[in-house]
Amino acid sequence: MSLNINSQKKILIVDENESSRNSLQLELNRKGLPSETLNNFSNAANLQSQILMADPDLIIMSVHFKDNDKMGIALCEKLRFQGNNSWIILVGHNNAHNNSQLEEKIFSLNAGADDYFTKPFFIDELIAKISTMLRRSSIHTRDGVLEYSDLRMDLINRSVWRTGKQIDLRLKEFDLLKVFLIKPEQILTREYIFDQVWGSSFLGDSNVIEVYIRYLRSKLNKPSLIKTRRGNGYIMISDESQISKANTQFEL
Length: 252
Description:
Layout (H helix, E strand, L loop, with lengths): L10 E4 L3 H13 L4 E3 L6 H11 L3 E5 L8 H11 L5 E7 L4 H13 L4 E5 L3 H14 L8 E4 L2 E4 L4 E4 L2 E3 L3 H12 L7 H8 L10 H13 L5 E4 L3 E4 L16
Parallel strand pairs: 1-2, 1-3, 3-4, 4-5
Antiparallel strand pairs: 6-7, 7-8, 8-9, 10-11
Helix pairs in contact: 2-3, 6-8
């Protein structure tokens, strides 16, 4: 049965195992999700360039490559550093050492992956995740602009507008809002937000997140789009009725 998902969405499979990527592409096609694959895995720089040129909406990428066991994680981190906002699902191998597998998942999410799967996995579970991500991709646009509800962010000119009015934001206020706009309707932990905006080397006040979210709420005016989820983190959502449907991937 095919899924009712925009056929113009581009899915890119990045896996140097030919049998694995062809099998996955076949399964996606059967579900009405046409995809593309890469075939040149000569080096990380070349692979990164191919991915950027393909400009996909969603990337399914192997963590492990023959010449670099964790190259998928490194590529994910580099893509995020360059401002790429494609959905990224990283896929690792089943490992008998559970701690090692958990560590790999944590590294993958911290590198900017939106989800992590372990082979072998149920294809229907992956399809469901892809379906959710592609539906949400309509929340924001590409070409350097992020949009959600009545909020619009121009990443190139570093400007923010709400209901047609420009909002003056300081550097970290802009960076913080960007984190929420990239992952709307998802609960983000304080740790994730802190790492994305200030980095692990920051030695300032531990309540800096609360302070800057208060600044943002004041400047964005009501109704507030950034909600507090006590004990979990924060979420950007325009309709409280949708909260139960919000993805909680970063809730640890």
